[in-house]
Amino acid sequence: MKFLNGVTLLLIYQLIGEFSVLLLRIPVPGPVLGMILLFLTLMLRKGSGESLDSASSALLSHLSLLFVPAGVGMMVHFDRIANEWLPISVALVLSTVLTMAVTAAAMLASRRVFGVRVQEDD
Amino acid sequence: MTEPDLATIWVYLSASPLSGLTITLVAYSLAYRLYLFANSHPLLNPVVTAVTVLIIFLLATDTPYKDYFEGGQFVHFLLGPATVALAVPLYQQCSSLKRLWLPLLIALLAGVSVGALSSVLIARVLGGSLQTQLSLAPKSVTAPVAMGISEQIGGLPSLTAVLVVLTGITGAVLGSKMFELMRIRDDAVKGIAMGVAAHGIGTARAFQISPKMGAFSGLAMALSAFATALLLPWLLEMFDLLN
After folding, report:
1. Is residue A46 domain-resident?
2. Which of B16, B115, B151, B219 pairs with B108 at a CA distance of 20 to 30 A?
3. Are residues A47 and A75 in the same domain?
4. Which among B100, B197, B201 is the nearest to A99, CB-wise?
5. Nearest-CB residue to A96 (from B96, B108, B171)
C-alpha cells in the first residue's frame, strides 16, 4: 500500500507538471516541473515519508532499464548514423568528456574562490 | 483451419504489447546479471548489452521497431515518474545544496553551455547535417527533457533519444577513468560532473560507485535538465547556430 501511495503521488505531481506547462506555456518539460514542485513540497513539509521513499528508490534503482526502449530506437536511425557516423561519434564522445571536465573544473575552482567546503557533515 | 506454425505465431504475438515488454525485461535482467558477473566492468553497461541484444533479435525476427515499442512504451513511460522521483534524493541532499549553491550554479552554467555548444560546433565542423547538429545539442539531459527541447529547436526527437542514451553510456564508461586522470577524489564533485554530462545513465553508474556520488549526480541531472530547457534555445540563437 505504501508503494502504491508513493507511485500515485509521483503521478499526481507529473500530471500537475504537464498540466501547468501546457497552461502557462512554460518552456520546460512537464516531469521536470513536477520534480521541482515535489521538491518544494518536501522542503515545506520537511520530510519525504516512507511511501514516497519506497516508490522513488524502486524507480531510481532501475533507472538504466527505463532507457532501453529509447535506445533500441537506434535501429530506426541506422541510415543516418551510418552516413554521419564521424560527426556524430566525435561530437558525442568529445563533447561529453569536455562537459564532464569543464563542470568538474568549474566546481573545484569556484569552490576554492568562494571558500566553500564540501566534505563537512558527511 | 490449418495448423499454425511458429513463424505465424510470432507474427501474431510480436504485434502484442506483451512480447515487447517481456523481451525488454528479459534482455535487461540478463544484461544486468552479466554486468554483475563481470564485476561491474563499465564496458558491459547493462543498457549497451540489452539494447544490442534487442536490436539483433528484432532484426533477426523482422519485427519493426513500432511493434516492439507497443510493449516497450510501458517501460519508457516510467521515465516521467522517475524524473519526478528525483525530487527525493535531491531533498535528502538539501543541506549540501544550501552550502554549495553558488559553486554549483557556476559549474552548472559552464557545463550546460559547453555541452550544448561543443556538440553542435564539433558536428558542424565535421560536416554533419543541421538536423543532426540540432538533435545533438540537448544530448546531455535526461531523455524526456531532451526530446522536448529537440522538437522545440528543430531537431529529430527520436534521434535525440538515441543520442541521449549513447551520451549517457559514454559518460558512464569514461567517467571514472577521467576523474582518476583529473585526480578528483571528492564524490560530490564527481557526481555533479557525471550528472551534468551523462544524466540518468551516468547517475545510475554513480549510484553503483557510492550513494553520495549518486545523490549529487541525480541533483546535477535534475538541475541541468531545468537549466538546459531554459538556456539552450537562447544559447543557440545567440551564437547563431540554429541555421
Report:
1. yes
2. B151
3. no
4. B197
5. B171
